[in-house]
Write a structure and sequence with these properties.
InterPro entries: Plipid/glycerol_acylTrfase
Shape: globular
Structural class: alpha/beta
Pfam families: Acyltransferase
Strand order of the largest sheet: 1-8-7-2-5-3-4
Number of helices: 9
Protein name: Lysophospholipid acyltransferase family protein
Helix content: 40-55%
Keywords: Acyltransferase, Transferase
GO molecular function: acyltransferase activity
Oligomer: single chain
Length: 231
């Protein structure tokens, strides 16, 4: 109910009127049944524009920090995240990663759309980085297709750290679903998981023509932070 209200009454119409987002390939989104929407990640606003432009409800796995803030700001952020279909996950690894996987599998088990950013975090510079294999394991365990999605110019409209977005058009390009049924029963093979993940990243790179770097975005962020601290 909150999701429907936010999308169709409270926020959706206003966002569409201001930013006039465009979308290509909407027909590639399955009209029913579970699927993973695998997107590049340029801006916090990616999680707003993509669900807004799809006819079906979808959920994103979002870091738990967004749901634990205190005071009025924390409450507002928490309500916004819930209202836009976000689900809290712990990215600290180990048992937390397993819990995150199970959260995603529950969404897919209901026959819903699940949004995942394979890179695991926002790109620090607009490039496309190496994918984490959690998306492959989830796709194989749930036996669902993966739909590649490319967000366009959301990092220009709302760069990391900027609270007030720039009013401009942003876009979404959706590619044909990827079928990994040939790997049925191989979700525990780490080589298969890496192969599936890399295939997803290749599809994203071809769809959006981003420069690709075969390194994790989180590693690049750590390097940049170290350089900044050293100055």
């Amino acid at each position: 109910m909150i999701y429907w209200f936010m999308k169709n009454i409270a926020i959706g119409p206003l966002v569409k009127a201001i930013f006039r987002p465009w979308i290509v390939g909407r027909s590639h989104v399955p009209t029913s049944g579970a699927a993973i929407m695998a997107s590049n990640h340029l801006s916090f606003s990616d999680s707003i524009f993509l669900p807004l432009m799809l006819d079906r409800k979808m959920s994103f796995l979002a870091k738990s920090d967004y749901f634990t803030g205190r005071g009025l700001k924390g409450w507002a952020t928490r309500m916004f995240m819930k209202g836009t279909g976000q689900l809290p996950i712990d990215r600290s690894g180990g048992k937390a990663s397993e819990a995150s996987l199970n959260t995603g599998l529950r969404v897919l088990g209901r026959g819903d759309l699940l949004g995942i950013y394979p890179e695991g975090t926002r790109s620090p510079d607009g490039k496309l980085y190496r994918g984490r294999t959690g998306i492959a394991r989830m796709a194989l365990e749930a036996k669902v297709p993966v739909v590649p999605v490319v967000m366009v110019d959301t990092d220009v409209a709302m760069p990391t750290g900027q609270r007030i977005p720039k009013i401009m058009r942003v876009g979404i390009v959706i590619g044909e679903p990827l079928d990994f049924s040939r790997y049925a029963g191989m979700e525990n093979d780490r080589y298969i998981l890496r192969s599936v993940t890399d295939e997803i990243m290749v599809a994203l790179q071809r769809l959006g023509e981003q420069t690709y770097e075969d390194v994790y975005a989180s590693t690049v962020k750590e390097r940049l932070a170290a350089v900044t601290q050293a100055r």
